[in-house]
Amino acid sequence: MSDAQDPVDFEILEGQKENIQSLPGGRSARKLAQLYSPNPLKPLSTPNPADTQDAHSAKRAEFEQEVAAIDESDDPLDVYDRYVRWTLEAYPSAQATPQSQLDQLLERATKSFVSSAQYRNDPRYLKMWVYYIQFFSDAPRETFLFLSRHGIGESLALFYEEYATWLEGQSRWAQAEEVYKLGIECEARPQARLLRKFKEFEHRMSEQPAESVRPTSPAIPPVRAALATKVDPFAIAMLPDDPQAPRPSAGLPGYASPKANKTKGKMAIFSDSNAKEPAMGERATAGSRGWDSIGSLSERKKENVMEPKPWAGETLKAGGKKPSGPKMAIFKDTAGK
Questions:
Q1: Strand partners, 156
Q2: How many structural domains compose the chain?
């Protein structure tokens, strides 16, 4: 019997299941068994994770060379796609171990093609964003809105399924229903799968109490039109004072104060009623602000990280304040004398 037909020893996986990070599409049991099964006769084909650091470093260096020459590739996304899939297979506990460097890899891969119309609706590219949201994103809703603003995955059912699933997990049933209907309206593909999952969602939503399915804010808020050019509402010409006007006489009737004769300009109120209302999920333009970049995990956590500084001249506080109260009285037994 060949190696490809050997049965998988699930006893090995049973002892390692706590160290394996689940994936949306599942994992290959055979590859996991090979990864966690040491074989002295075939150390390279069936390595042990504890002994494969050098092999992983060499493979990572090969991918980095491909990334360095990615401008000459016919399919640049394929390089990152193979790189990410290899990392997920080589490091089953990718989220919990910094050795995998999966967070940095996903940030590099996703940011490289944000403005690429070629990969905007490529399932491989959208799956990288899904991995990033599920494993590392600290603000999933903002990340989904970022994808919507840039039109990433707008024609793929996977985007609407993942966003609606996250909203459902947050008990935002009305917003999840809105996302499903938006995907069906956009004819996202594959449409048959999207319709099937929407029916399953409707069945689950029908079992919820009416209070939990109340209307909420839009799941994908529309892009508000930019305000008009800022003008000074108080820059309205005031009527000049008449130099021949009679001066006010205090206490005399018939004389009004010149301040009462001045015409005050009303505050100019901006109205965008004539502006065109953008459609829901309208793509961000090149001049849009706030959605040009989603940032990185290190940038969002920089307030919680202390910058390293030299220890020269630093003093460490040791001990605490001496108690100022009375000392504890020690009992002495004088009856034994």
A1: 189
A2: 1
Q: Which helix (H) or strand (E) holds 196?
A: helix 191-206
Give the chain's mean pLDDT. Answer: 75
Q: Which domain holds residue 110?
A: 10-154
Q: CA–CA separation, 267 vs 273, rounded Å? A: 18
d(CA 168, CA 141): 12
* More confidently predicted of 182 and 225: 182
Q: How confident is the model at residue 5 (pLDDT cuts 50, 70, 90)?
A: low
The model's pTM: 0.64
Cβ atoms of 103 and 88 within 8 Å: the answer is: no
Alpha carbons 300 and 70: distance in angstroms, whole number: 28
CA–CA separation, 72 vs 99, rounded Å? 29
* Residue 46 pLDDT greater than 50, yes or no: no
What SS3 state is found at 277? coil
Cis peptide before 222 (omega within 30 of 0): no
Residue 314 to residues 225, 304, 305, Cα–Cα distance (Å): 54, 21, 19
Q: Read off the CATH number of the domain in which 139 is found.
A: 1.25.40.430
Q: In 3-state terms, what secondary structure has residue 44? A: coil
Q: How far is CA 264 from CA 237, 242, 245, in A?
A: 9, 16, 19
